[in-house]
Amino acid sequence: MSDSSGHSDRGWRSGEADFQPHAFDPWAEPELFRGVLTKRVFAFLIDLLVLSIPVILAIMFIAVFGLVTLGLGWALFWLVSPATVIWAVIYYGASLGGPHSATLGMRVMDLELRTWYGAPGYFVLGAMHAVLFWVSISFLSPLVLLVGLFNSRRRLLHDVVLGTVIINNSVRKPLAQTARTF
User: Fold this and answer.
1) pLDDT digits (tens, 9 = 90+) for 80-112
2) Cα separation, 148 vs 152, whole angstroms
3) Among candidates 135, 106, 127, 112, which has minimal Cα distance to 42?
4) Fewest 10 Å CB contacts: which of 29, 73, 82, 91?
5) CA 94/CA 110 separation, integer angstroms
6) Contact 59, 80 (CB under 8 A)
7) CA–CA distance, 166 with 26 (Å, rounded to integer)
8) pLDDT one-digit tens code per residue, 33-46
9) 24 in Cβ contact with 114 (< 8 Å)
10) In 3D, which of 172, 110, 103 has the Cα closest to residue 133?
């Protein structure tokens, strides 16, 4: 049985999957993707700064603590690398999975993360987005960024794998008018 739009109601019970179309069409709404790659680079740099400030403060604390304890505190330096990874995963997971679906850098650059079918991000998706980005950039060098130049949604390799898309936030939702109170 199908409705007027041609969609069937057979669904998963009959063994056939009903696939949803992409929520964001680059041909119908090109303004959603205009300048996204450039904004993503600057958002990444801002996020790198946000991530590095607590790490630098922790290193400075351990260095001073090592001086005060006559070198014993310097044994804590081994915690810096794992703590940095944990901090980055929590930062990306919490910010991309938060109510804005964007990191601080993405919010400054007016970007947001959405799934290919239009839903906002969630913690695990945000954490995996960061992990896949760092892994792909480590193995494939900056060449992984070239993928965004060859698709109309400006998705990078980790976006394609996870089924996410980065769009301009202000274009997606029009600004609401402020209520007048008399």
Assistant:
1) 999 999 999 999 999 999 999 999 999 999 999
2) 8
3) 106
4) 82
5) 18
6) yes
7) 12
8) 999 999 999 999 99
9) yes
10) 103
Q: How many CB atoms lie within 10 A of CB 177?
A: 6
Tokens, residue 109 = 């650059």
- The phi and psi torsions of 69 (rounded to 5 degrees) equal -95, 20
**DSSP-assigned states of every residue in the chain:** -B-TTS-BS-GGGGT---PPPPS--TTT-GGGTTTHHHHHHHHHHHHHHHHHHHHHHHHHHHHHHHHHTTTGGGGGGGGHHHHHHHHHHHHHHHHHTSTT-S-HHHHHTTEEEEETTSPBP-HHHHHHHHHHHHHHHHHHGGGGGGGGGGSTT---HHHHHHTEEEEEHHHHSPPPPPPP--
Enumerate residues 6+ apart whose C-beta is below 8 A from 147.
155, 156, 157, 160
